[in-house]
Amino acid sequence: MAEAQESDLPSLEDEIFSVAHNVEVEQGAAAQPLLPTDKAQVLAERARAFLGRDMKALAAGVGVFVFVDVVMMWAPLMMSRRPSLLPQFITLLLLAFGLGGLLVWKVGGRWRTFGIGMMLAWGFLTLVSVGFLTGVTVPL
Questions:
Q1: In angstroms, how far is CA 117 from the centroid of its own chain?
Q2: Distance CA 19, CA 85 (A)
Q3: If DSSP codes are grouped into helix, strand and coil, which group holds residue 82?
Q4: Which of 91, 98, 90, 100 lies closest to 121 in space, CA to CA?
Q5: Which of 9, 33, 55, 121 has the most other CB atoms within 10 Å of its CB?
Q6: Where do the H-state alpha helices sit in the chain?
Q7: CA 118, CA 100: separation in Å to the nearest integer?
Q8: Residue 130, by phi and psi: left (phi above 0), alpha (psi -120 to 50) or beta?
Q9: What burial class does residue 128 get, using C-beta atoms within 10 Å of its C-beta: 0-12 exposed, 13-18 middle, 19+ buried?
Q10: 102 against 39, higher pLDDT
Q11: What is the pLDDT of residues 32-72, one digit of tens each?
Protein backbone atom coordinates (compact mmCIF):
# COMPACT_ATOMS: atom_id res chain seq x y z
CA MET A 1 0.00 0.00 0.00
CA ALA A 2 1.04 3.51 -0.61
CA GLU A 3 1.83 5.80 2.26
CA ALA A 4 0.14 9.15 2.58
CA GLN A 5 2.26 11.92 1.16
CA GLU A 6 1.25 14.41 3.81
CA SER A 7 0.79 12.68 7.16
CA ASP A 8 -0.33 15.75 9.12
CA LEU A 9 -3.44 16.34 6.95
CA PRO A 10 -6.52 14.29 7.86
CA SER A 11 -7.74 11.75 5.36
CA LEU A 12 -11.34 11.54 4.15
CA GLU A 13 -11.93 8.63 6.53
CA ASP A 14 -10.68 10.76 9.44
CA GLU A 15 -13.01 13.61 8.51
CA ILE A 16 -16.06 11.38 8.23
CA PHE A 17 -15.61 9.18 11.30
CA SER A 18 -13.67 11.34 13.72
CA VAL A 19 -15.09 13.22 16.67
CA ALA A 20 -14.92 16.98 16.48
CA HIS A 21 -12.32 18.53 18.74
CA ASN A 22 -14.14 21.80 19.23
CA VAL A 23 -17.91 22.10 19.11
CA GLU A 24 -19.54 25.32 18.06
CA VAL A 25 -22.45 26.41 20.24
CA GLU A 26 -25.03 28.89 19.03
CA GLN A 27 -25.77 31.86 21.23
CA GLY A 28 -29.53 31.13 21.49
CA ALA A 29 -29.04 27.50 22.51
CA ALA A 30 -28.20 28.39 26.10
CA ALA A 31 -31.36 30.50 26.53
CA GLN A 32 -34.28 29.48 28.76
CA PRO A 33 -37.25 27.56 27.29
CA LEU A 34 -40.09 29.65 25.90
CA LEU A 35 -42.55 28.41 28.52
CA PRO A 36 -41.15 27.74 32.00
CA THR A 37 -41.78 24.21 33.22
CA ASP A 38 -43.84 25.23 36.27
CA LYS A 39 -46.20 27.31 34.12
CA ALA A 40 -46.43 24.54 31.54
CA GLN A 41 -47.30 22.03 34.24
CA VAL A 42 -50.06 24.28 35.64
CA LEU A 43 -51.41 24.82 32.12
CA ALA A 44 -51.43 21.07 31.44
CA GLU A 45 -53.28 20.36 34.71
CA ARG A 46 -55.91 22.99 33.91
CA ALA A 47 -56.40 21.61 30.41
CA ARG A 48 -56.73 18.06 31.76
CA ALA A 49 -59.34 19.13 34.33
CA PHE A 50 -61.23 21.21 31.75
CA LEU A 51 -61.31 18.42 29.18
CA GLY A 52 -62.32 15.88 31.82
CA ARG A 53 -65.33 17.96 32.90
CA ASP A 54 -66.34 18.73 29.35
CA MET A 55 -66.02 15.14 28.16
CA LYS A 56 -68.26 13.99 31.02
CA ALA A 57 -70.89 16.61 30.16
CA LEU A 58 -70.68 15.70 26.46
CA ALA A 59 -71.08 12.00 27.24
CA ALA A 60 -74.04 12.79 29.53
CA GLY A 61 -75.73 14.73 26.72
CA VAL A 62 -75.18 11.85 24.30
CA GLY A 63 -76.45 9.33 26.86
CA VAL A 64 -79.61 11.30 27.70
CA PHE A 65 -80.50 11.73 24.03
CA VAL A 66 -79.87 8.06 23.22
CA PHE A 67 -82.07 7.03 26.18
CA VAL A 68 -84.91 9.33 25.11
CA ASP A 69 -84.54 8.14 21.51
CA VAL A 70 -84.75 4.48 22.51
CA VAL A 71 -87.86 5.13 24.63
CA MET A 72 -89.59 7.12 21.89
CA MET A 73 -88.71 4.92 18.92
CA TRP A 74 -89.04 1.45 20.49
CA ALA A 75 -92.80 1.02 20.13
CA PRO A 76 -93.22 2.40 16.58
CA LEU A 77 -90.30 0.39 15.21
CA MET A 78 -91.43 -2.86 16.87
CA MET A 79 -94.94 -2.75 15.39
CA SER A 80 -95.65 -4.88 12.33
CA ARG A 81 -97.74 -2.10 10.79
CA ARG A 82 -95.71 1.02 11.40
CA PRO A 83 -97.47 4.32 11.78
CA SER A 84 -96.03 7.64 10.65
CA LEU A 85 -92.87 8.62 12.51
CA LEU A 86 -93.41 12.33 11.92
CA PRO A 87 -94.36 13.11 15.57
CA GLN A 88 -91.29 11.29 16.88
CA PHE A 89 -89.08 12.98 14.27
CA ILE A 90 -90.30 16.46 15.21
CA THR A 91 -90.02 15.76 18.95
CA LEU A 92 -86.48 14.36 18.68
CA LEU A 93 -85.41 17.21 16.39
CA LEU A 94 -86.78 19.81 18.83
CA LEU A 95 -85.18 18.01 21.76
CA ALA A 96 -81.75 17.78 20.15
CA PHE A 97 -81.53 21.10 18.36
CA GLY A 98 -84.14 23.15 20.24
CA LEU A 99 -83.17 22.28 23.80
CA GLY A 100 -79.55 21.59 22.83
CA GLY A 101 -79.27 24.91 21.02
CA LEU A 102 -80.88 26.71 23.95
CA LEU A 103 -78.34 25.16 26.30
CA VAL A 104 -75.47 26.12 24.00
CA TRP A 105 -76.38 29.72 23.25
CA LYS A 106 -78.34 30.91 26.29
CA VAL A 107 -77.39 28.84 29.33
CA GLY A 108 -73.67 28.21 28.74
CA GLY A 109 -71.25 26.71 31.25
CA ARG A 110 -71.08 22.95 31.40
CA TRP A 111 -74.59 22.80 29.98
CA ARG A 112 -73.12 24.04 26.71
CA THR A 113 -71.26 20.78 26.15
CA PHE A 114 -74.32 18.84 27.33
CA GLY A 115 -76.35 20.49 24.54
CA ILE A 116 -73.59 19.83 22.01
CA GLY A 117 -73.64 16.18 23.09
CA MET A 118 -77.37 15.98 22.41
CA MET A 119 -76.94 17.46 18.93
CA LEU A 120 -74.01 15.15 18.16
CA ALA A 121 -76.03 12.14 19.32
CA TRP A 122 -78.89 13.04 16.98
CA GLY A 123 -76.49 13.33 14.05
CA PHE A 124 -74.64 10.13 14.97
CA LEU A 125 -77.83 8.07 15.39
CA THR A 126 -79.20 9.43 12.13
CA LEU A 127 -76.06 8.45 10.24
CA VAL A 128 -75.59 5.06 11.88
CA SER A 129 -79.21 3.93 11.54
CA VAL A 130 -79.77 5.60 8.14
CA GLY A 131 -82.47 7.70 9.78
CA PHE A 132 -84.58 4.89 11.29
CA LEU A 133 -83.76 5.73 14.91
CA THR A 134 -84.52 9.43 14.53
CA GLY A 135 -87.51 9.16 12.18
CA VAL A 136 -85.83 10.88 9.24
CA THR A 137 -86.57 8.09 6.76
CA VAL A 138 -89.80 6.21 6.25
CA PRO A 139 -89.48 2.69 7.70
CA LEU A 140 -90.07 -0.21 5.32
A1: 12
A2: 78
A3: coil
A4: 100
A5: 121
A6: 12-17, 37-78, 86-93, 100-102, 110-128
A7: 6
A8: left
A9: exposed
A10: 102
A11: 666 677 877 888 888 887 777 788 889 999 999 999 999 98
